[in-house]
Structures are given as structure tokens and as C-alpha cells.
Amino acid sequence: MSETRMSENTHSVAIGAFIVGALLIAVTTAIFIFGSGIGSSRERVVMVFDGSVKGLSVGAPVALRGVQIGQVTNIHLILDSDNVDLIMIVEADLDANNIQYRGNGPEELTEELIARGLRAQLNTQSLLTGLLYVQLDFHPDSPLQLPDIDSPHTQIPTIPTELQKLSRQIEDIDFAQVASDLREIAAGLKTVVTNDKFQALPDDMQATFRSVAALSEELRTAVGQSGPRLASVLDEASGTLGALNTELPRVATLVEQNLAVVEDAMRAFEGAMSGVDSLVAADSPTTYELNKALRELALAGRALQLLAKTLEEQPEALLRGKSEDAQ
């Protein structure tokens, strides 16, 4: 009797162990399948951002026109030794359950949307914390730029934030070169004012040339320092609402000062150009430098005016880009 009872107990234990083992296998398989995305309704995408992704973290939302459709799953950096450049790669899972598809499947539709202008942009979740999320929206006029990366996933093109756009415009202004041009202009005008023909000019024109020569010397130092100072303050103003509130007055003041310098220089040089032709040849270095400086100052003026307008109308654009209504 005891042997029969022991046999039954052993059999029960074996069955229990088998069931537990089967459940463990099932759970492990489910975790593998759904966790890796195989057989799930998620689509893995990849995005390459130019610049800092400070404030973006794994788990951050991915939203399409304000509706969350996924989340960031991985953020990593690649050092491109060939171009000596850093590439910021962000991977995300898009949840098809949050989107109703018609026609083609998710992958084909995503590629079609990209062709029609779907772009990714970093945006601010909270002006208080500076945390970022990935905003998807349509920008059909933006260029389709897909960096060459080794990834099997669909790549969504990215566009810069408003702050990055403004910073790049400022960076495109070669303030050091403008300062160098001003030095050349000052030297050239000093030569002009010692010319015999110069003494025959009306007194007001002589005064204009002398003031332009003096202004060139003054502007050379001011303009040479403008670019680095403005870029530094813009960088400090990015991040959180607290930083923006602290730095915005500095940014606005610095922009106004630089814009005033540029506008004064343009007015002075335009006045000088009216009398240069009678004193120097059209292809002389002085004429060339004056024309070149005017072009560069005009470029600087346009960029600074745009920045000043943005600061006045939408200062929060430095944190989260322009509002959709303004686009």
C-alpha cells in the first residue's frame, strides 16, 4: 500500500513540475516575442539629430501632432572618425494600436509619409524641467536628409529646432571676417583722405569719409566680439524656462546692441560709397572691401532682425520651437 501511495505522489510531483516548466517556457516566449517586437504591433524607427539631445531620455514620448504614438527606446552616440563628427542616434517604437491604418501596412505607410514631408523634431515637454520629447509633423518644404547609418530600421528625417536655426544663422555670419574687412576699409580710407583729389571734395563729404574711417576702427573690435558673445548667450538661454527668464534680457539687449552696430555701419558705408567712385577705381581694394562689408553686414542685419522679432513675439520659441499657429 505504501509503495502505491509513494508512486502516486511521485507521479503528481512530476506532473506539477511539467506544468510549472511549461508555464515558464510560455512566459519566457511571450516576453521574447512581445518584448522584441516580433509579432507585435510596434514599428521600430531611427532618427539622427544634429546637435545636443540634452533633456531627451529613454521612455520619452513620440507624438504625432500632439498625439502620443510611441516612445524613445534607445539613445546612443556614434563617433564618425572619417569626418571627425558626432552622430546622435535615437531609436523609438511606434505603436500601431494608436494609429488606424488604411491601405498599406505601417512600414510602407511610414515611408510614404516621409516622402510627403514627415519629419522629427525635438520639442519641450515642460518649460519648467526642460525635458524633451520627439514631435512628428509634416514639413513638406524641408529637405529630405537621411544620414548614412548602419540600421535595419526605417529612418525618419529630422529638422532643427528654432533655437538651432537661429544659432546657425548667427554662426554663418563670419564676424571675424567682417572685423578684418573693417580693418582693410579703415586702412584704405586713410589712404583716400591723403589723396590730393580728396581735398577738392566738399567739406561734408570729407567729414563723411573721416567719420567712416574712424567708425571702421571702432566697429572692428565691437563686431569681432559680437559673434562669440551672442552664440554663448543663446546657448545659455536654452534648456528650461528658468534659464530663459534669466538669460532672455541679456539676449535681447545683446541683439539690440549688435543690430544697432550693424545698422550704423551700413548707413555710414552706404554714404561713403557715393563718393568713392570719384576718388578710387571701381576695382580698387577699398571699393571691393566696402562692397564686401556691406553684403556681410546686410546678412548679419537680416539674421539679427529675425532673432529680435522672434524674441519679441515668441520668446518661448527658443525652448520649444515656433508654435504651430505661427508656422
From TrEMBL:
Q: Where are the transmembrane segments?
A: 12-34
Q: Which InterPro entries match?
A: Mce/MlaD (IPR003399), MlaD_Phospholipid_Transporter (IPR052336)
Domain named Mce/MlaD is located at 44-138
Q: Which domain of life is it from?
A: Bacteria
Does Cell inner membrane appear among the keywords? no
Listed A to Z, the keywords are: Membrane, Transmembrane, Transmembrane helix
> Is Transmembrane tagged as a keyword?
yes
Q: What is this protein called?
A: MCE family protein
Whose protein is this, by species?
Answer: Parahaliea mediterranea
